[in-house]
Batch of 4 targets.
Target 1
Amino acid sequence: MPSAVHEQDIEDLFIQKLRDLKYTDRPDIHDRASLEANFREKFEALNRVRLTDAEFARLLEEIVTPDVFTAAKTLRQINAFTRDDGTPLNYTLVNIKDWCKNTFEVVNQLRINTDYSHHRYDILLLINGVPCVQIELKTLGIHPRRAMEQIVDYKNDPGNGYTKTLLCFLQLFIVSNRDSTYYFANNNARHFSFNQDERFLPIYQFADEANKKITHLDDFAATFLVKCTLGHTISRYMVLIQSEQKLLMMRPYQVYAVKHLVTCIQQDSGNGFIWHTTGSGKTLTSFKAATLLKDNPDLAKCLFVVDRKDLDRQTREEFNRFQEGCVEENTNTAALVRRLLSEDYADKVIVTTIQKLGLALDETSKRNQQRKKNDQPTYKEMLAPLRDQRIAFIFDECHRSQFGENHRAIKEFFPRAQLFGFTGTPIFEENAAQQKIEDTQASMKTTEDLFQKRLHAYTITHAIEDGNVLRFHVDYYTPGTPTSPSAGSSSEPTRTSALPGSALPALAKRAVIEAILQKHDTATGGRRFNALLATSSINDAIEYHALFATLQAEKQKADPDYKPLNIACVFSPPAEGDPDVKQIQEDLPQEQADNEVEPDQKKDALKAILADYNTRYGTNHRISEFDLYYQDVQKRIKDQQWPNSDYPAAQKIDVTIVVDMLLTGFDSKYLNTLYVDKNLKHHGLIQAFSRTNRVLNATKPYGNILDFRQQQDAVDAAIALFSGEKTGQQAREIWLVDKAPVVIEKLAAAVQKLDAFMKSQGLDCAPSSVANLKGDAAKTVFIERFKEVQRLKTQLDQYTDLTEENKAAIEQVLPDESLRGFKGQYLETAKKLKEQQGKTTGGKADADDPVAQIDFEFVLFASAVIDYDYIMGLIARFAGQTTGKVKMSRDELVALIRGQSNLMDQSDDIVAYIDSLKEVKGLGEDAIRDGYTRFKAEKDAAELAAIAQKHALAPAALQTFVDGILTRMIFDGEHLSDLMAPLDLGWKARTQAELALMADLLPLLTKRAGGRDISGLSAYEQ
């Protein structure tokens, strides 16, 4: 593609590319009427029908919907319509049997005017006349994220084209500035927004099979937008999640894996396995494979096989989340056998555990023996008709128990079966634990031995490079000794007489807890996140639980202000014949072995742990219903996602002590730390570490590991083994964050860049100088420079192995006082520029406008600790200080408040309130809160009264008008006309008066909306 600077050039060249791909260019379609006329023509041809004008109008009325999910279903299914004469018409909008046979057209610069919206759309791709893809282009130098924000803004306008016209059928959005191209699914508002907590809606970059990104618009079109490929993407590789009414795109690697698996079955070419790293969405991939196989007439059944009761439940829930009711619960082996023999289409895909399947095929099992005694055919005999049929078995987490007798029984009983495995951590020769015997030659059992060939790989190295999972920071810590002097993830730790990997004595356990209590707030970003403590045995877990109680009681006695961590502990009880517990323990080898020694003591200890848990959380769990307790623990760990104002910290869990449980298969974005007092290696180590590295946003830069057993060699070996094509050294550089001294050097360089820029503007590098920056270009540079400083500081803030020298170096590079000041200036400047950015006419940003290019990251400046409640307590302490014992000055308090993005909209009011307290001393926290509420109400009323007086309006009427907007979050133009009516102005004068009033009301409404959008207000954002 030739050099293209202007958006129009990029658009023209792109349309030519689509013509080359055999899309039909339709320059005649430029408005709503021509779009609908073309759709009618295509609809009538596809369905072999001629509609009257009245019928077509009624059809449009029936199919056009503001609900994206309903529209997506209508697009993919056969629908019913009653004609004017009462005859039924079953129709489809597109050729759903063969999407490749649809017509594919391209429309550009379509304008649609609806009741409240006047929008222009760069490029639309029509499939059989239905607009299915929107492409928004930006000029080089402007990040495509601006186009994403523009689409979100368009969709938030009341009565917009997405809700009132055929544009409701859009499935995909593509945004590009030619060099960078992204795509994402359309969705209803609750799944379709940019916000500071989640960063932005799920977006994707296309990639080839080797995971090489395809970002240039020309290359993207040549691969992703080929007509058949696009048809398959929409029809096969988007998933409609019924339970959440949500559209989900499959990532490129998921699509390639499904294609390989389906092809392997179509060609009947043996078995295979898919290596997709933990956290990459294996369940979605396997679900999509299973649903595509459901329509294969050569296949009798598709069994999705898991190996544990909780995974069985979790997988079934996931499958039913993707498609409601698609998988039933198999409560027992008899139900499984019934469904296997059923010819009902609904029973073609079955989720079951390998244990249930094994019991059905085991002639010696209790159930089969009982059936023989009752002169009934055994389950194995009943399943005989399936022996010669083609059945696909998909094994989830196939690195687990597929190496046992059950697996062999399945292969022997179903000779025509094809077996497929999904794993995040394959078994290689290096990490194999079992042997197989072939003739007299012994070799290790590997994933490849069982499943023949690897169909597709997406390793943790790929996922980290893509930003789909996080890197790791590993602190090799020896209790009772200083932390590593080089303080980094791959540094050589300080050694003591304790050997790497050796168990810790009781005294050392106390030191481990002291280290955790000292480091936890740092590791978890001030308890924004939570942690697991992995122990080597049930006895160790019991001991740790008791020690935590003892040590935290001591800390509270010494320091009444200390807030203890909420500690939970979970390990399986002795099975004692309970089949559910036995099933749970089949993948918990350490717990299973531990429970065979002194089981009564283990049981008593677990009862005491449950009693402590019940007291803490007001629950009523019993050991006889252990599974309910286990589920409750998992839920409370995930409840960390809610702010303390919505869900009290007392109801959450800070640290969960485990042995084997939760170290595989458990996911929570808000778990970021793993404390390790347990020997880990190979796939077990990767699985455990991967509990911490789910992506959230910039406040979670990496997964934190504190290893108390000096297992650096094991970490390096696991990285080398599971790195895919990379060398061990390359993988370490990708997997592990930089050592602290390296990040401190980067911080120093970032501060130096900021310093050089400020001096280039003739200013000192000080917070007070930022207000004197002239022009948007200079302010934009400051935003970018300081954002990088804050990002590096956020990363260092969660390092658990900083030495005193490291801390001194950071303070020297960037003193705390300067940091707080700069954060406040950043937020004030960014807020003004963000407002200006939102006023860009029609969302069409100019590459020469520096503000258009800024990507604000307010989440970097939001504290989990410093919230409204914390600040009220701080103000109470500030107001209660005596002159001789000042702990915090007014300037320090103000800088702290102004540096928090979560207080950005309230900071002016809070600071004004602090200044009003100068003469007030000794108020308690409740009085401070009540005082602020009164102060705020009086200030708000005075602010509105001043606007009312300025515009000659009755204050009460203006108050009612504003309250109505903020209650409904909708701006209604008719209510504005009613408000202005008493002024009795002519239309021209009234229009000017309305604009003048709204200019004053707009910042007030935006501020009081607290970051939420007010529909219809954008018309006044000029």
Target 2
Amino acid sequence: MLITALIYLLAAVLAVPLAKRIGLGSVLGYLIAGVIIGPHALHLVGDQTEVMHFAEFGVVMMLFLIGLELRPDRLWAMRRPILGLGGLQVVVTCALLAGGLLLVSDLAWQTALAIGLALALSSTAIVLQSLTERGLLKSPAGNNAFAVLLFQDIAVIPILALLPLLALSSIGGTGADDHGHSLIHDLPTAAKIAVTLATIAGIVIAGRFLAAPVLRYMAETRLREIFTAFTLLLVVAIAALMQVIGLSPALGTFLAGVVLAENEFRHELEVDIEPFKGLLLGLFFITVGASIDFELLIQQPLIIGIAVLALMGIKAAVLGVLAALFKMGRRHGLLFTLALAQGGEFAFVLISAGRSASVFSAEVGSLVTVVVALSMLLSPLLIVLYEYLYSRPDQQACPSSADDNIEPSHDVILAGYGRFGQVVGRLLSAQGYHLTILDHSPSQVEMVRRFGNTVYYGDASRRDLLEAAGAAEAKVLVIAVDEPDKTLAIIATAQQHFPHLKILARAIDRRHTYALMRSGIAGLRRETFDSALNLGVDALKLLGLTDSNASRAGQLFKEHDEQTLKVLSELWGDDKSYGLAVRQRLDDLRQVLLADQKERDAHIDQQSTADHNT
């Protein structure tokens, strides 16, 4: 076990940084690492089936984290792309693939339909990881791709139920289903539906009413490892429950994440799960690369090559038409198309279930597995192609102005032009300073340009883009993006290549503030602090304090909080010391405000006495 773990970890730490450095991305790095150490190359590891079943849990954790970012109202707002776009993609792609197989082979219609259903699904792991890594998941194309993937994950359930109905008597089964029967497998249909609905309702109710007090109880232990253990227990228990009743574990944890999206411990859950998700997803990608049967590829190179191209070509054609029908635009439509034009990890599950249900033979299953794995291997290259086409310095503007050259600034570069950045930009422009404004959201750039503003599309963490924007001569870089990780990436690039730049940044929350303070930038502002403080001062006035007393209390609070930030930033990461310091600083704040109140009361008494004597 230790030797195997050593091989996987060594392959990852060698291949992934190299792939990232040459612009291929981490996903392709993991896949290449798997190919190299797999049984068909260096033969450092053997059969990947059991490891892949374990690594697939990374997909489960990823969907849980995505659920934490989606409030129920936002999920409801996405119902049209989920049902419309996702439903059309699965149905049309399956019909074309199954029809094509019937035309070019002698497969039975049941086998062709089962293969078409399996191949219609895309890779949730590869698509979401690739888009997230490049900051594209929240773009219109990323949102639509996520909607399709979510529908596909839901569609796995009825597809698995359909496979036994497609069994062929001429094909002998391969034994018990690799994934086992659910506990409700033999129940009547009505009972299955009732149990399924009851399980989903139980998850929703428990997440809404029980999760917060239990998580609070765990947090009060002040033992980080216990809170992490409970977080893992929560995800594993939900996944196991869904699997026991025959539903998708990924879908169950996604639902749990959505329910917990408004929970006070959402950020702690996210922080605890993220490292495990990243490691398991990396392991999953390595196992996909290692599972490619190159011996079969050598035996039938022409058939497999044509099959891979046909699969990706048909899926790309369907996705391209859907992108046009749903009016995504050229840029977003291309990204949407290239991101989803591959087979997915759920195809492995359906292939295994199809073989067990005697829908197709082991030989056909092996051939389809190789085709899916190769398409997944090629998929990240399509994202690299998209970046090459649209992320070069001469392609940074929106599609409507793709030929514009960035006008460099000698004064200020502003990264991020949303609600925060626009206030900063208007103030600086009104004072006569020249700004070069960058934003990595194409829709935001397009919208702002409609009002006559000059904003350039691009990722400000790229050295070449900052250089084109005038970073070599500019005086100040203001970072107003709404993603903490992206802010830190921009700071790292600027400090490494343009150390003379004075950097000011927008802080999203307290954790982000600590990271910015440690980065050594010239200054930062918390995006909601001043407005929240002013609202608190207004509340004090309504409660009876005079204008001067309320303003004085707000000023004291601000000064004390700024001092507190410096103290707590040095303790961040040490949970015990941090918790004690938070309570101590809160007590100090009460004492400061109380002492100031007593001082003002004493001053008023003295003034009254003096007036009386006079």
Target 3
Amino acid sequence: MTPFRLTSTVRRRTLALFAGLLVVAPPHAEANAASGSASATAITALAVQSRSTRQTKRPTPKKKTPAKRSTRSTRAGRTRAPIVPVLRFTSPRGEAALTSDLTTLLGSRTKNGAWGAMVISISRGDTLFAHGADSKMVPASTMKLFTSAIAFEKLGPEHTFSTDVLRDGPLEANGVVRGNLVLRGDGDPSLSPRFVRGGPDASMSMLARFVAGAGIKRVTGDLVADASALELRGIPEGWLTRYAGAGYAAPFSALTLNENIVIVGVTAGGSGGAATVFLEPATRGLTITNTVRTVAGSSTRISAHRAGNDRVVVSGTIGARAGTVRYQLVVGDPATFTGGAFRAALEEQGITVDGALRVGRTPDNATLVTSLPSPPLARLISTMNRESINIFAELLFRGAARGADKQTLGSAENASATLNEFMVRQVGAAPDAVSVTDGSGLSVLDRVTPRSLVQLLAHAHRAPWGSAFHASLPVAGESELLRNRMRATPAQGNLHAKTGTTNDVIGLSGYVTAENGEILAFAFLYNGKDRWHARETIDAMGPTMAAFSRE
């Protein structure tokens, strides 16, 4: 076994030559240079001393007893921080060595909090390491592994979601629908520029063109936005109030557009005149109150906020030379927002709707006009995991509960029950190992055990959808959220895993191939405040597993 290695921080030596005297700066000279005066004073003093010694006979030096190292600097009474070595991975040989090294790493940095960790060999079926493996811990975004698994299991990698347009009245030869037009959501997360080129308006514009292609020119009734496929509660239980308004915590809906974020654009007018305010996507579901004035110059002082669910208030000043500036706001009522964007897109196609925009349900006798399908589920999950998109996870979590037959309400309660049944009956986890209230891991109420994570990973590896599951995970040192982690180590290009990060959680769970070819599944979860040290610990344990061999 290669011994546990700790290398000190690079010690930069600054050399100065004063009348033949070599001055060697001590460790952390570069850090001390930030303070400036202490280093300069010390070097000046040495220079003066060197001049005086040249004028007198140099005494015979006496043998000195080596001084003991101290963390306290003698310069101007400054206290120097102790040298903290960089945490390095090891190359363990044998199961006992791996256990010893991972145990050492786990306890070497974090000053508080709790760890849960487990490593198993999928190739050989044995447990290589366990520490708090049955502790119930907050998973953060490693929760998305559970969401991915039940979505693949219940829907299949090739499953597509469908946003439909229906009519509940006859279509006359002149293109008039005598009745209502319905926009029915299916919980599709892909109605955004991530998948549909052309900007935030592109998805609804495409659907409106399909409607025009079906021969519809006018609707005598209302435009109905049907988001009943999923529960109406758009914010999961356990999300903190401080998340409100953040783009990563936008509310979900069966009708979700542009990840339920609206862009507010402001363009300067003539000096002294009103500015122009517009929304992307354009939507009839939001009204704009605009008091922005144009002033000389190029500076901007603009405030944009949502008032209630149906109004955007924009105020302040914009410089005449500022051009167009953009701000993003989280939508309060996604169904109305999406329905309003569809109505605006219909208008662009010359299709008029005589009635109102309202939220409702699709009548049983409605006739399908057209549909806009999503990309395959495997692609959606890959995007979700690689970029850790919370709204994707909430939609797919509930979509899995709804099932391919779409007969069950897509709710967190039904999704949690679906997940627990899957974990107990198919994965073999303990009945109380997983208890969650959302699909993204943003809820502070979620609890999972490290053992349940590695059991899930082992099951996924053997499942028919296992290759798609593997492919969805970021790669250490190369892609997405792991791009800058574990680079130039045996884990780079090898370790595939899902990250999990909040103010109180650091996690990593996935797969790595050991040096002897074994495939290992691992779960590392830290709950506590010392998360930067926890991340450093994980980034040493990852390549340690990659460098492991039973030899």
Target 4
Amino acid sequence: MTAIHTEKALEEAIESHLLAHGWRKGSPDAYDRELALFPATFLEFVKTSQPNEYNRLMGFFGEKTDSELIRRLVQVIDRDGMLKVIRKGCDIYGVPIKAAFFRPVSGLNPEILTRYGQNILTVTRQVHYSLKNEKSLDMVLFINGLPVVTVELKNQFTGQTVQDAIRQYKRDRDPRELLFQFKKRSLVHFAVDPNEVYMTTKLDGDDTFFLPFNSGNQGGAGNPPSDGFRTAYLWEEVWQKDNFMDLLQKFLHLQVDEKVKNGKKVRKETMIFPRYHQWDAVNKILADVLEKGPGHNYLIQHSAGSGKTNTISWLAHRLSNLHGSDDKPIFDAVIVITDRLVLDRQLQDAIYQFDHVQGVVQQIDKNSRQLKQALESGKAKIIISTIQKFGVISKQVADLSNKNFAIIVDEAHSSQSGKAADAVKEVLAAGSLEEAEHIQRDLDAKAKDVEDRIAEELAKRGRQKNLSYFAFTATPKAKTLELFGRRPSPDAKPEPFHLYSMRQAIEEGFILDVLQNYVTYKAYYKLAKAIEDDPTLEEKPAKKAIARFASLHPHNVAQKTEIMVEHFRRITRHKIGGRAKAMVVTSSRLHALRYKQAFDEYIKRKGYTDVATLVAFSGTVIDQGEEFTEPGINGFGEKELPERFDSDDYQVLIVADKYQTGFDQPLLHTMFVDKKLSGIQAVQTLSRLNRKCAGKQDTFVLDFVNTPEDIQAAFQPYYEVTTLGKESDLNLIFDLKSRLEAQPIIWQDDVEALVEAFYMGKDAAALHKYLDPAVERYLQLPEKERDEFRSTLSTFVRIYGFITQIAPFQSVPVHKFYTYGRLLLRKLPVRGRVALDLDDEVEMQYYRLEEKSKGRIELVRETPGMVEGITDAGTGGYHKKEAPLSSIIEVLNKAFGTEFTEADRLFFDQVEADILRDEEIVKAARSNTMENFRYAFEDVFLGKVIDRMGMNDKIFAKLMDEPEFQTAVKNWIMGSVYRKLNGEHPMQ
């Protein structure tokens, strides 16, 4: 008997369940490695289910029939792909041969039902798949001898988890092997352990992308505890024979995207397999409709990142073919209310793959007459229309009381939408920013979104027995819950029929947590001031982040513009490998116009070339008698804006009630909020930042208007868990670091070695080498201490990342510790969940680029001989003979193209005099070599410059903005100070 803690025990549990529920045991010896299938099983299926067709082939080929049939099967699979062959079969000499039979939508055709029962589903363990070696897969699932699912199993009791199975697929399963070739054989690959399931539809070495296939655990990621394996739903539900066949027939589809890139057409194919919540939602809705019939409402609360477009497509198709117990269609038509333009084409393509039928989907893009004809004719099974036509639809379908309709309502707003024209005019008449903001706020309060408009229409007519509503939303309002929600009991509050929470989407890695780095202006200022004053920091060059805005009042457009531009240039533009973008959310169209003007003027005045802006607002804004439009300001049409903003030409988008919902731009990293937000509007606006892309680790929000309590209250109903906190105390970083160092987990030698490997660009294996010992030491701790250490490390990593987005400070030891801690955190196992994989080379590469480009770690400082000072030309070493300080202006003007005068020299003279009076500098100069003196000098230099900032704005700004210029000045003054303090020049 197999011990329950071994990997084989999981294999046996899965196999025994499947064998007891209609599956057959496959023999690995019968597997043909060269063809990557079971020829004998396929032939058995054809002979049993299609005897007439097989006998016709016998007339052509005689005793060669079997070999000719298999040869032709393989030929068609290579041409069309496995999925299409399973659905459509192949032909040989004009004889159609089915590769599988699927369950008929009704019981009117008993012959097909009989053939459906003749499918042979086999589960085969330890399949040796390669002609090159004897490697084997834990499990493969076949339909009529054709491989469709591969499985790698792990068990935590053996020291391995689902992440080890994922690594095995990435590094030990050659995607060139026929069994793994995309489309050619297996269609999906599962990594499974007793706690979690992940899957992928394409093996691509280290670039393979696995998705979680978990059911969720109390609103979060993972799976709930159970009496047996937490992952038993996979083989008990998903691989249940009928469900498995439905997956192949009605869910899997090949998505083809074609784009023109650099003048060339690029074609990308993706095999779409549902995530668990998508599959579960569709099946539970269908089961409920079959039980209750038409006339009921369904609320599907699925977060951003849930894949709503695909879920709606699958549901629309299934509802359009759903037959009741009387074998008649339940719905005469399915109407999809959406602004997603992609849905029409996607539905057409997917349904053609499912049913091979054209004309099932009709887009209503003209008028209500076209809609009326579509409803009455009954030719189109799925009708797609926009929310603008909803009022017409609701009247007409109510009149067709002899027909039943399923109405799917998609919350997605058009990203281009503005207010009605008459409302726009009200705002444009405003004479000042304050008046415009006041009018806009009133209009926002009165504005009706999709949910409100639908609620109004339904309230007028009440529930109709022939109409079923399926409402998809991430953020249901109270009205929406009342209309579409289900009450578990008469006295209970209404609930969504199906939930995929924002928290689960974040924990599963599909979206980012936009509240993690959220700071109000008050906190921004307070933290910045703390960095300026806090004596515990080892270095203080971050004072430059404060100097410009420490005294600014936050209610002036020009002053806030300065804060936003400087924050973007200092922090945001280095994110996502230098591609990150920002959005400015303003309180009215007039504000958006003024901000656009202020941004462009400031950028031009400063001579910046790395930031350019676009503006988005509806209609025409009249400001001081002059008319402005979005296309007129930007220089191109409104429809072009998303594509233009996606390019490298523009970095900041300034918006007024536009692009705050439905706008999908993964490169958006930072949002500056200068508008009162509340409720759903706050969630939808801030969620523009949550889209993920390669290299995007986090987001940042700087809010000039709202309080943390406002935002927390807005997100709480949809979020499950919120991380939005109070103002951070800078010293917390050092307190947390001390607590972590008190435990014998993180060793300084490992930190130094890993940081060197990380920034030298070595592969992931080198990083594991320095992290694994810490993981082992962590595992030796008692459980309570493990939880405490991991929680402390998680807080340290989050707080450090947050604070450095406000005003990064250069503390090399702390940043090294953070780099090590961040990677270690991803490796530490969690109770009930496994650690995240560390092998995302793409993500790490972007992270490495980001840190290098920001220059937060200057490793060159640890090799003093490499640091060079200024020469006569401004670029050489300080050991050479120096010109007197009075000639600094001449040298700087020559080296940097400046136009400073001798009068400007007073600024440098007084900075030098301040430094010469510093007792610590005097001691350091007289007891150190020039190389060692540099460290003490750099600690003091910037502070003295900031103290004199009011004397000379021009020189001060250049010192703050241009590192090369600052280095040149610093080296010059340092050389002069060192010589004077060591008696080379007598002090005056």
